[in-house]
Sequence to fold (287 residues):
Amino acid sequence: MGTAVKTAKTSPASWDAFADVDAFVDEVLAELAAMAVDGTRSTRSGPTAALSGAALRKAIMAIWCVCFCGMQWRAIGQLCDIPFGTLYTLFARWTRLGLWRRLLNRLTLAWRQACGDKPVPSAVIIDSRSCHSAPTCFGRGFDGGKKIKGIKIHLAVDKYGFPLAINVSPANRHDGKGIVPVLHQLAGRGFKGTALGDLSYRGERLSKTGGALGITIQPSAGGHGGTFIPEGIRWVVERSLGWVSRYRRLNTIFERTEAHLVAFIEIAFISILSRRLVRLAPQEIGA
Fold:
C-alpha cells in the first residue's frame, strides 16, 4: 500500500524555481485554452480588449512572482507595466472559475501516469502547517503548540507529495476538525482508502466521519522524544510542507479570502509539477 511502481526520473539539476518558469506559463495557457473550448471560461466583455499574446504571458508570470517572491500587487504591477488592478482581477477571476484546481489535478494525474501509477491512490498522507498571518487576513487564531498567531493549512497528499485536497482555517482549529473538509474533498474525488497521519488525528468522532466517507484514518506517532522519525510514506507530507515554505506568499499570509489562499497553494504546486514534467528524462517520455 502506497509504494511506487516506478518513480519518474527527471534530468539532474539544482533547485531553481526561475529556471523553468516558462513551463508554468505554458501550462496555464494550455489550461485556459482548454477551458475556452469546453465553455468553462467565458469570453470577457468590457471597454478594453482582453490581454493576449506576450501581455498575457507577462501577466501569468507576474501572478507567479506574487506567489514565489511574496511581492505586493502594486509593486509587481509597476515592474511589469500592467495595472495591478488588471493582474488582481485576472487572478481572482481565474480562481473563481477553478483554473488552478483544474490545472493542478491534470498535472498530478500526468505525474502519476509518468510513474506508472493509478489515477486514484490507495493511501494519502494528511498533515497541517501553521503560518503567521496579517491582521487583515480572512481569519486568525493562536496555535498554542507552535506559538503562532495566524492560519493553518491542511493537506492530503499522495505518496509523491502532491496535494489531492486542501483546506485552510484559523490556527486555533484542531487538526481533527480542520481535516474534515479535506476528507470530504477526497471522497468527492472517489478516494476510498487509508489516510495516514500523526496522533493529532486520533478520536472516535473523526474515525466515524472518515468511515462514513469510506476513508480509514490511521494515526501513528511521527517521532519520539521530540525527534522526527520517518515512518513508511508518512514523511512525504513534511517534504510537501517544506516545498510550500519556499514560496514567500505562503509564509506570512495576507489573503482576505480562503479561496485566494488555497489558490496560491495550488499555484505553488503547479509550479513544482510543471517544472518536474518538463524535466522528465528522455527514457520516461518515450516509454
Observations:
- Residues 77 and 267 are 19 Å apart (CA to CA).
- The two ends are 24 Å apart (CA to CA).
- The domain at 121-259 is CATH 3.30.420.10 (Nucleotidyltransferase; domain 5).
- DSSP finds eleven helices and nine strands in the chain.
